[in-house]
Amino acid sequence: MEVKSTAKTVRIAPRKVRLVLDLVRGKDAKEALAILKFTPNHASEAVYKVVKSAMANATHNHQMDEDKLYVKACYANEGVTLKRFRPVSKGRAHSILKRTSHITVVVDER
Questions:
Q1: Domain that holds residue 96
Q2: Which helix (H) or strand (E) holds 70?
């Protein structure tokens, strides 16, 4: 049985989150947590929390064995984009797009 956990509107660009998700896809859940703990990337902290939450959902809500869990699927979709402006010369303004992510992790029992 698949168990899912989602973090919405995380203030990291999806492109950067996907680099971290590629490291843990298909790995055992405990191994994935160890990888994320020592990955020097800002997105790894957010992904760590989502994997931990998915494991907790599986053990508490569905009575699955924590040692048999693995990351079946993980993906980052684009969330809302915050639009900001930076003043530049001659009274003009350039737009800045601050992107957000929706991070989803699916765990299952082997």
A1: 3-109
A2: strand 69-78
